[in-house]
User: What shape does this take?
Amino acid sequence: MTPEQLAAITDIEALRAAALAMVDSQLQRIAERDQRIASQQREIQHLDLTVQHLSHEVARLKRIQFGAKTEALSALQRGLFEETVAEEVAAAEQALENAQSASGADAASPADIPIARPAKATPKRQALPPELPRVITVHEPASGCTCATCATALVRVGEHVSEKLAYTPGRFHVERHVHPQYACRACETVVAAPVAPAIIDRGLPAPSLLTQVLLAKYTDHLPLYRQQAIYARAGVELPRSTLADWVGACGIALQPLADRLREKLREQACLHADETPVDTLDPGNGKTRQSYLFAYRSTAGPPIVLFDYADSRSGKHAREFLGDWRGALMVDDYAGYKALFREGVTELACWVHVRRKFVEVVQASGSPLAQEAVERIGVLYRIEAEAKDQGLHGEALRAYRQQRAAPKLKELHDWLQALGLKALKNSGLAKAVNHALSRWPALLRYLDDGGRPIDNNPIENAIRPITLGRKNWLFIGGTNAGPRAAAIMSLVATAKANGLCPQAWLTDVLTRLPTTRNRDIDSLLPISGWAALGG
Assistant: This one.
């Protein structure tokens, strides 16, 4: 209320009420301010602790990197060890720099903070080979050739030139960015187009080269020492330590996209889940230990594939990843998931796993009864194929399954029960029958919802490239590299599942990421609806 409005009040009680209202409003504003201050203090304290932790981590990794234990390793082992530790150091330094920037920045809305902050240090680098072709891009000022202040014609007085090593599949080239500098004699000012920030600020690689290194490592399963040799044959010397720095920095920058994919995945009512082992390097003693990647995939909407790194196969990792999610989960019979089902998650069982056990019996003994089981299960898949050909979804698919598949399942259940009584105890056939019957309630639940899958094949297909790549990796990296690798592989797998070209998508994202705000992060996700810059 304004002073004029207060002066106009002649009634004492009305004046008293107005004064009390003003006091209450002021007290409320003070309370809100105190809450904001307390929240900012907690955030500052958290950032300070993060900076302290990352500083110690960087120091620890550098001690390991130059420690005496690496001297006992073979040349190949030492190379892989140093490659992994260099990547760990680069990622920790990038995370430390981000935390220090956030700690020292003015208070701002989280939605207005860029996802990736460019590095401030100016790295020293070798000159790019002169024989590589140059692609020149000239960045003119937004105001053109006239002064934006006084409209006087500008005079070119120089230029700023930067070169980035770029990569298109099969060849290197140099992107030469020219920023002409113009002077306005009347205003005594110099005008030039700003230099766009980059993941590796003032560094050697263009986004296309960073994309090549990441895809070669995590999709084509080429360790960095092999990439170094490949690039050297093309006339470009890129030390493994440099490649490792790039991988570590990109992993930190891409993590927010993987975090957002996880949020969108948890919005689904039904998910696939599986897990696969990977070896992880323990830099402290130069040995490897077994860790796991838990894999999840959506069943509806744009496909989302997500890998979650865990240091063991314990079911607690799945519970921590899913949190309070309470949908339907398609899994194998691994006991680690059972706690989820006791807490309210609906268990779905995979018909491919059931069929596989009967196929193994057929291959081992040629059993005609096992072959009949395979054929009966095949009927269920023919019904699914017919429904797909008719374009059935949701309630229509549920009704079709109830009409066509439910009677066949009843016949199969009765036949399996009778077969279980006749099969030799502890034989392969008896074990296959008992497995099917023990999973029967979960095997039937796909009938109840047209959005539920009949098997876990989609997530097994997503895991297959990891199982193929394990021999090339030897190990996925250090403990901190596990989540970083999982994030990058999640993004690439999701891009593939949505029919996107990983090369085009990742190059575009690494170009736009440094200037993208948190509130706009969905525009970068590798799902349908993504559009390349200028596309």
